[in-house]
Amino acid sequence: MMMTSIMPIPSLVKNRYRRYLRCMSKREPSTQTLITKIIRLPSELAERISNFRFEEHIKTEADTMRLLLERGLEHSRSMSMPVKNSPKVPG
Known about the structure:
Structural class: mainly alpha
Strand content: under 5%
Oligomer: single chain
Distance between the termini: 94 Å
Order of helices and strands: HHH
């Protein structure tokens, strides 16, 4: 009869797992539906986004992308830029 022993999990791993669970349990449940979008970027643009992220001390690349998209949309709205294919107002 073969005896197998279960190796104990080191306390360091246990502590990290406990901290992870505590952190995850404190997260606010999101009321928004999140949609995943996959885009391709030129390497120069990806580098600029990465540099911006670190300069602004933003946690994740996804947060950086959301912030930049929001800023760009707000800026375009404030500039009153015409939308492509929008009807022209006679003047």
